[in-house]
Amino acid sequence: MIKRLLHISALLLLTLKLGSAQQQYTFTNYLLNAYYYNPALAGSEEVHKASFSYRNQWTGFEGAPVTVHGNFYGSIRNEMKHGYGISILSDKTGLSTSTGAYLNYAYHLNITDDIRAGFGVRPGFFQYKLGLYDAKLADKGDEILTGNIVTANALDLSSGFHVYSNKFYLTASLDHIFGKAIDFTVYNQSLTRHLTVIAAYKFNLKKQKIDIEPGILFRTVQPVPSQVNFFLRGTYDNKFWAGLSYRTDDAAGISLGMWIKERLNIGYTYDYSLGGISPYQNGSHEIAITFITTSRRPSLDQEDEDLNKSIFDQNKENIENEDESK
Questions:
Q1: CB atoms within 10 A of CB 164
Q2: Which of 175-184, 279-288, 306-315 has the lowest mean pLDDT?
Q3: Which of 21, 66, 70, 196 is the most buried (most CB within 10 A)?
Q4: Which residues contact 161 (CB under 8 A, 6 or more apart)?
Q5: Which DSSP category does 39 fall into?
Q6: Are 24 and 197 in contact (CB under 8 A)?
């Protein structure tokens, strides 16, 4: 019995150690799933949103990661001051399954008339399972690990800031802040802090009804080399969009999507690994769906435009009436 427990414990610790650099999962189309990367985004818009993301990585490769992320977030009375949210994350890679549940709070304030800033925290609970019942043993006569499920738990915390306007945003977040500071759970001893920085800028070509949005994501975690993700998205008439992406030393991808009635955004992304694993996989597929659960309030610029248009239309109608009366 003791030998059996030692084998299981050693395998669990080894798996946690090897997986310590993969505790923050990758979504290629981060412009559609920015909330996943930074808790400060909760409440940064005058609406509530519900989002769902699904990523099937390295299709064709046995035991490849499958990641699901769902969330709901907004601000109290849609006032963009006190933001809140909830999110659930699940990932299955090989024999291991990771599941996390998180709450979120963010506070937003004005820096200038056009620029705002948000600060957020996201506490949560994380569970790691190792399903040894699916293990394929080299020695078929050794059944010491089969039929077992090993579980480890962790308390988790992320924090970040978000500076933004109608034209740009800059965010930075730190994930797994607790790390090894909490020693009463096995998994906390293997959590590694992740730093993520995202920046994007929107160029508006009004005559062509086109928005062009380049973005960059920088992520670093020890001891893995830092990674940079470049993304470029073009949107036509606020309805149809397409994008290209490239992750250094990793993958390149293409994205397509559309807005439906200004409330439902559906996007699909395909990326192909450029690293050493490329001969053994058929690329990665990612689906992201976002639904705005509350009606958008018109911006001040839109209100001014609507008012000017109504005045113009009224003057035109009065002129036409005068001409007819003559």
A1: 21
A2: 306-315
A3: 196
A4: 40, 117, 118, 119, 120, 171, 172, 173
A5: G
A6: no
pLDDT digits (tens, 9 = 90+) for 213-263: 999 999 998 777 889 999 999 999 999 999 999 999 889 999 999 999 989
E strand map for 57-144: 66-75, 82-93, 96-110, 116-131
Question: At 71, which amino acid appears?
Answer: N
Of 218, 192, 251, 220, residue with least CA distance to 57: 251
The first and second tokens of residue 232, run together, are 């470029």
- Whether residue 25 contacts residue 57, with contact meaning beta carbons closer than 8 Å, is answered with no
Whole-number pLDDT of residue 301: 54
CB-CB contact of 271 with 251 (8 Å) = yes
Residue 272, token pair as written in the block: 């192909």
Q: Which amino acid is at 250?
A: D
| Total number of residues shown for the chain | 326
Q: How many CB atoms lie within 10 A of CB 308?
A: 10
Distances (CA, A) of 167 to 28, 34, 79, 116, 199: 22, 16, 20, 12, 11
Tell which residue, 55, 62, 96, 53, has the closest CA to residue 251.
Answer: 55
| Local structure of residue 51 (DSSP, 8 states) | E
Helix (H) or strand (E) holding 216, with range, is strand 210-221
Question: Do 40 and 119 touch, CB atoms closer than 8 A?
Answer: yes
Buried-state track 4-18, b at ≥16 Cβ within 10 A, e below 16: eeeebeebbeebbee
Q: Give the three-state DSSP class for 49.
A: strand
